[in-house]
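Anyone? Bumping this.
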Amino acid sequence: MPLLGHRARIGYCSPPFVTETFCTEFYMMAPEGVTLLITTLEIRTRTKEEVAASHQRSLLAAKYMADAGADVVVLGGNPINQSLGMENIACVTDDLAREIGTKVITSTAAQREALETLGAKKVAQVYCYEDAENERHLNSMRNMGFEPAGVLSAGSDFMNIGRVDGKLALELSRKVKAENPQADTIHIGSAHWATAHAIDQIEKELGVSVMTSQQAIMWKALRTAGVTEPIAGFGRLLIEF
Amino acid sequence: MYGYRARIGYCSPPYVTETFCTEFYMMVPKGVTLLIKTLEVRTRAREEIQASHVAALDAARYMARCGADVVVLGGNPVNQAQGVENLGRICAELGREIGTKVVTSTQAQTEALKALGAKRVAQVHCYEAEDNDRHARSIRNMGVEPAGVIGLGYTDYDVGRILGETALTASRKVKAANPEADCIHLASAHWAIAHAIDAIEAELGVSVMTSQQAIVWKALRTAGIEDTIEGFGRLLREF
């Protein structure tokens, strides 16, 4: 028997100080022979200091992951990625990849590419955090080059995202689509609440494409690592592209 | 939510953790999730061990506030650096403070060996041979007599690169060299061994306790998950 990650070993620098759902959904989606290398970062409440410290820690972790044999490293977290300035992200990942000798991508780049691939034009957003974050999520979407078409939040604080009810992704999606019928895509934001199980149903019921942060990261990491097979059960992105 | 039956917190010593999560989701029943905090161990230097203990206490508090049903302070070296005699007190005090059950890797493995009725325990670990004495001491600290030890010679960086057949071939070797062994301990929760447990037990006529299996077993049982779990040895199937 070969090593556990005989097809691909994917490094992920995971923003939450304690990470739960990303790993769960990773192993729901990953084909056999694909493993996750994870380092948890510093985000507890998403202060500016935590965001900056997380970026620094991810650079160190990326180096370690490359030395450990990761095929690709993901610098996780839209807030962390975008705090560098959208215009600088590619330069940061290119420089880092050259330094550590492994491919490097970001959550933001993965999500932007996923939206482009899905042919998204007007993107409604739902996410798990408090209403106060609406503006940040709208800006994030614009930063990725897409026009936001409505945003709804689930109202959870960061510490409680593992407790978010599994029905919420579908319920919020129904609501945001009803309020914004022009939306052709729903972005389910944050890679750390339970959404993977709902993707197919949302696409089918609401006639939209769905991009979740976790699904987009997974998709981009797999494809970058050369794992190109269709993966059923988690939306058009992983089955068609 | 995904963790509707139990949410298990694990303070994971390796700075970058791979195999523990993979094997966790190979073993656990649906409705059980892992909350993970990676700690500071890169080479197992003394400073890293102590920093990891401090970080684990902080992470345990956070995990409890997140709703973890049980928190595991991971890593025999990290645990045993506190003194084996102190672990019960540390867990009890921390558990009272944070309002969640707390266990350690060392306690999980000690209890697993007892449950399996182990008397003479041969060991295989993935690290360098100079760690053999530490591993033999670690087993004595768990109250059981060591019966041979093999180190496979990997560094912390390379534990994710160990081939799947290694656990079985090394177990054959240690059992042949120590036929009196009634149990084989495959040590470290961070190399790929879960898939080999049943085969080793069946072929060599021993019980197998792996660090990762013992941690998952103790955490599940502490969280009230009593399911019989097939495919990963007697421990998860019979106890």
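Late reply, but here is one note on the structure posted above: The first strand of chain B starts at residue 6 and ends at 14.
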